[in-house]
Amino acid sequence: MLETIHFLNTALPLFYLATFIVYFLDFKKQKKTLHNSKRIFLFLSLLFHLFYLLSRTFEFSHVPITNKFEIFTILAFSIACSYFLLELFSDIRGTGVFILGFSVLFQIASSLFIEDLIEVREVLRSPLLGIHVFSALLGFAGLTMAAVYGVLFQLLYKRIKLNTFGIFFEKLPSLETLEKLNFYSVIIGFILLGIAIGIGVIWLPVAFPDYSYLDPKLVSTLLVWIVFGIGIFMKIVIGWYGKKVINFFLVGYTIALLSMFLSNVLAKSFHSFY
Questions:
Q1: Is the Cβ–Cβ distance between 183 and 235 less than 8 Å?
Q2: pTM of full prediction above 0.90
Q3: CA–CA distance, 28 with 204 (Å, rounded to integer)
Q4: Label partner for 133 (CA 20 to 30 A): which of 32, 72, 124, 148?
Q5: How far apart are CA 120 and CA 133, in angstroms?
Q6: Which DSSP state fits 234?
Q7: Residue 49 CA to chain centroid, in angstroms?
Q8: What is the pLDDT of residues 192-228, one digit of tens each?
Q9: Residue extents of the structural domains in the chain
Q10: 121 φ, ψ (degrees, to nearest 5)
């Protein structure tokens, strides 16, 4: 099993790089063969990655969340998986090149520096903690995708206003499509982040004697979830659309980044495992 884990650790960056190249070539040339085959590349990469994560979990008796390079491989999987869900949900396949590059970078960093840790804190062996962390990372991956589509929307919007287009902008989806992808990504992130918060509120007090509902990471994550919840409400109920809702979600993502930085770097939290 250990040999398989090490093989997959080496091969996964190549899987993701190949997938990224296929999506890039499809974006550049827009050929039917590439359009139909790139989802297969992505699916196989996710399948091998899932097998890798499960193999590490069973081999070392803990979910791979014990150090930042284990977190990086889950981030790579989370981003690719969130995009795959978005593609299935929307059936819009032309934007993977803007998302999957993040998976390539995170997986390369993980594969280069990850360590096989056997001795870890007992709480890190809990499957519920693994689901909590995994859901949170999937949620933030969804919000990151939303931010990417928001930035693309803003760039294309400015080009339309100036009536100047290059090859890059001509190949982008329409503003309406980018807004739809932005909103779908927000929904994915909002639901998965909500699952992570729910597990955290119910289970973490049992697992951690020093747990506090005022924990900086919990408060900051809840704040981000509420902000995006307000944005979803404003779009569905109030009827916000276009640049207004895109700007709101971009502000929400900026708040998410700031809260993550402050809670991880400046604040003391029981969430600190390593």
A1: yes
A2: no
A3: 47
A4: 148
A5: 16
A6: I
A7: 15
A8: 999 988 888 887 777 677 777 777 778 888 899 999 9
A9: 1-124, 126-274
A10: -60, 140
